[in-house]
């Protein structure tokens, strides 16, 4: 009599395959960048058939969104003088985004795919909401205020790092801080309009 396969063993193989794919993807994306990394190269490095990558992640965008772990390392805004939280956040944002191809690629993917958008929404929920909560005067307004901060910063990222609109690229980081800090300060700490 033939015994049926152990579903736990199949699940472990599936988990191991997924992890091999993600490890290979992280290495390829880091070495080649998003544009040049291919599903075939990632599959070859993971020692699996490319169809398995597609089976688990759907496409390159889905794989990238799953493989990229983004920690914005937002500052503890409670430790910043209240009148300086906008400046601190813009300065930190620019420090993180300048020359960070991974974040730029994630923004491109987020704008074009559901998996990328979900990844970006997760960053919003897990990182930006808690930072906003640290300084927002009204807890009920945290989501709206965090969304306004995200709109401002992602708009800058899109124009400066993805679309590379010349005036946005040409602005010196100090100029960007001077322009954007008061706006973020208002979003984070001002009384409700």
Range of strand content: under 5%
Number of domains: 2
DSSP helix fraction: over 70%
The largest sheet is: none
The SS-based structural class is mainly alpha
Radius of gyration: 20 Å
What's the SSE pattern? HHHHHHHHHH
Estimate the mean pLDDT confidence. 90
Could you give the distance between the termini? 75 Å
Q: What is the β-strand count?
A: 0
Descriptive account of the structure:
The structure is a single chain. With 193 residues, this protein is mostly helical. It has two domains: 7-67, Orthogonal Bundle (Arc Repressor Mutant, subunit A); 77-189, no CATH class. The protein is 74% helix and 0% strand. The protein has helices at 7-36, 39-46, 50-57, 60-67, 85-97, 101-112, 114-133, 142-162, 166-170, 173-189. The longest helix is centred in the first third of the chain and has 30 residues, at 7-36.
Gist?
By secondary structure, the chain is mainly alpha-helical. It is built from 10 helices and no strands. The model has no long low-confidence stretch (mean pLDDT 90).
Write the topology of this structure:
Layout: H1 7-36, H2 39-46, H3 50-57, H4 60-67, H5 85-97, H6 101-112, H7 114-133, H8 142-162, H9 166-170, H10 173-189
Helix pairs in contact: 1-2, 1-4, 2-3, 3-4, 4-6, 4-7, 5-10, 6-7, 6-8, 7-8, 8-10
Task: Describe the structure using short key phrases.
mainly alpha; 2 domains; 74% helix; elongated; 193 residues
């Amino acid at each position: 009599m033939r015994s049926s396969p152990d579903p736990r063993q199949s699940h472990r193989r599936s988990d191991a395959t997924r992890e091999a794919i993600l490890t290979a993807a992280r290495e390829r994306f880091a070495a080649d960048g998003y544009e040049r990394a291919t599903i075939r190269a990632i599959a070859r490095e993971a020692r699996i058939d490319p169809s398995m990558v597609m089976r688990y992640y759907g496409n390159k965008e889905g794989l990238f969104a799953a493989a990229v772990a983004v920690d914005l390392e937002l500052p503890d805004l409670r430790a910043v003088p209240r009148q300086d939280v906008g400046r601190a956040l813009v300065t930190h944002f620019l420090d993180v985004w300048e020359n960070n191809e991974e974040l730029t690629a994630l923004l491109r993917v987020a704008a074009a795919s559901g998996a990328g958008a979900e990844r970006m929404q997760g960053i919003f929920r897990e990182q930006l909401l808690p930072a906003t909560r640290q300084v927002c005067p009204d807890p009920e307004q945290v989501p709206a205020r965090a969304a306004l901060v995200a709109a401002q910063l992602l708009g800058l990222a899109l124009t400066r790092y993805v679309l590379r609109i010349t005036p946005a690229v040409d602005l010196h980081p100090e100029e960007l801080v001077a322009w954007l800090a008061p706006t973020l300060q208002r979003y984070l700490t001002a009384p409700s309009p």
